[in-house]
Amino acid sequence: MAEPTFLxxxxxxxxxxxxxxxxxxxxxxxxxxxxxxxxxxxxxxxVDVFRLADASSWPEAAAYLYQETVPGTxxxxxxxxQVLTPDx
Length: 88
Description:
By secondary structure, this protein is mainly beta. The chain is 0% helix and 53% strand.
C-alpha cells in the first residue's frame, strides 16, 4: 500500500515570489507546525522557514506561510523537513 501523502502549499506574504506546492508524506495525525525547505541565499546553503497557516483541509492539504530564510541545511539532506512542534 502506498504511503499517505498531503499537498503542502507554500505561500509568500509578499508577491515577489510565486507560491508553490509539493506532496509530502503524512507523518502524524496532525500537520507539522513548521516546514523547512532547502534553498540558497547569496550563494550559500540556507533554509526557508514556513509556519502552518491553514489546516482546514487536513489530511488532504495544508497551507504554510513563509516566515524567514536562515543559514543552515535541513535534516538528512532532504528538500523539505517537517517539524511537528518547533522549539522556537
